[in-house]
User: Fold this.
Amino acid sequence: MKMLKKLMCSAIVSAMAASTAAQADISDNEIRIGYLADMSGTYSALAGPGGLEAAKMAIEDFGGKVNGKKITIVSADDQNKPDIGANKVRQWIDVDKVDMVAGMVSSAVTIAVNKVVEAKDKVSLVSGSASSSITNQFCTANSVHYVYDTYALAHGTGEAVVREGGDSWFFLTADYAFGHAMESDVTEVVKESGGKVVGGVRHPLATNDFSSFILQAQASGAKIVGLANAGADTTNSLKTAKEFGVVQAGQKIAGLLIFLNDVHSLGLETTQGLQLTTGFYWDRTPETRAWSKRYFDRTGKMPTMVQAGIYSSVTHYLSAVKASNSDASSAVMAQMKKTPINDFFAENGRIREDGRMIHDMYLAEVKKPSESTGEWDLYKILRTIPADKAFRPLAESKCKLVAGR
Amino acid sequence: MTTQVLNSSTAGKTMSKTKLSFMILLLVGLVAPYAIYPVFLMKVLCFALFACAFNLMLGYGGLLSFGHAAFLATGGYITGHTIMQWGLTPELGILVGTACSAAMGFVFGKLAIRRQGIYFAMITLALSQLVFFLYVQAPFTGGENGLQGIPRGNLFGLISLEGNLAMYYFVLAVFVIGFSVIYRTIHSPFGQILKAIRENEPRTVSLGYDVDKFKLVAFVISASLAGLAGSTKSLVFQLASLTDAHWHMSGEVILMTLLGGVGTIFGPIVGATTVVTLQNYLSQGPLASWVPVILGLIFVICVLLFRSGIVGEIQKFMKKNFN
Assistant:
């Protein structure tokens, strides 16, 4: 009897769900956001709890409601494991009726999650991941890659380094989707600019001991040691390189993906002169300063480009929900792609058909300790890389959504 | 003579009791997806089957394998690969995955059963670590990314498994088949000899049994069922990843089996349910980063206070008070 009741209930509920979805309205009168990131491991400092705070800020600044419908947020730690991330998101969508997933750091997790999001026809806004394959061979109509990617990093940092005479490279690569994409994108740039790659070594994600890898890099005789890794892996390799005197011995290190928090934790003494590409720096314009100040007051840290991007992307999503008065993925995605993004994070940013958000990127150099005036005064912006140069042109895209592919 | 009769009648009684509990469990399994999230239940079933397969060796053969993750992962990867690349139907993919695990179990078993106790455990651990690094490097596994987006496809080319309910009943059927194989194995003359080996190996040898052969067969059955669990799991989650091959997984299955009750038929199911439920529900709350610590504490408490596990203790209690 009880079971029969339950059956009837579930039938009624599913019938109701189907009818509300058909009306192109906000499903179950609530907009639910899931924040997925590495909250405790290798990548937790660049997005992690800080990114969750940024997402919450975005919701509060939006008034907590869209057209009278409440916005709620849930979060989870993916531990950088694709299976955990994908399962969590599947459960969020099936049970908790989450409409949009934000954050997402490890590229392996992102690609797995995007497959689930595509199958369930929801929306994902990727801010933390780097791999350019997310909007290339793995692109989906349901996801936006918001902040940066390996193509932008390779063309920003890679080109600058080669131009200054760094024409032979050795790679230290994190052995998964992101590292592979980074390495292949930089290799392309180096070869195009007339340089060569003399070798490389791959290390597992979250490695603690880099000494053998650094020794291999020293033995290679390359002018540049390219770090195709991120987060704690990058800081650990930089520390080890310092202990082994890589720079003193005449080699240069190119950190291909370095975040503000990495430079902050390593200190200017270790990182000075390092060139890097970033999508956001807090001390660039009055708007970036104003927003970052508010973020700083809440978290005690200046935002990384990922954390700033999470705020911007969530706001853009909520505006799209408001404008289309729907949380159905097709309506929201169309609205998001239609509207240009103009806020503290991006000027005239727009989302392409492959899901890539294109905006200006910046080539920055880490200041010398003598130049810095404060704890967070870390970069000087060397030049702006215009949006159309920063990201992979659609003509080279392998994405199934791009016309003519 | 009388003792023998008595024995067989009590054996019959416990047998019917087991059958009754099994029927109840099956009934619960049939109704459960209407109350609980099916994907979660499928995860429980896959791990329960994995733990049951492990229990066959530890509980009934007295062989502590520390490398069962290798079989789970092999099943998952091979199934995923064959379905994605060769376009096999799900049931064929699962069969191929299981067969590969069985073959790997044969190789592992041949090497490992020559030693006993801690050496046996270490050899299985070493072999499974070899397999782990093979999977890290092999191109077909996708390394750290894993195999993603494995299609659930159509069962026998007819029934779509895309819906969670259809998939659930398929997984339940797989579990029941796997569980029946284990039940039959334990309650056969073969199982009797396995238990005899566990209790006193030299004596079994002196009775004229080729002990190594029995151990090997048990190892292969256990490995193939672990592979079956892995294959099914890769279909449920539509991905196969390195987590399954990592030695943590070999440790987790030991925890599940010990917690539920080694050498009891339902123990591993209870243990797997407990561990998976804890992992699932704790990972959302404020205790998220404490899950391994909590599991560790539970393990310590289990070893100190109720060494025969949850089901083992219940059985003891029943025997003491209701017999």
In short: Confidence is low (pLDDT under 50) at residues 1-9 of chain B. Strands of chain B lie at 147-148, 154-155, 159-160, 239-240.
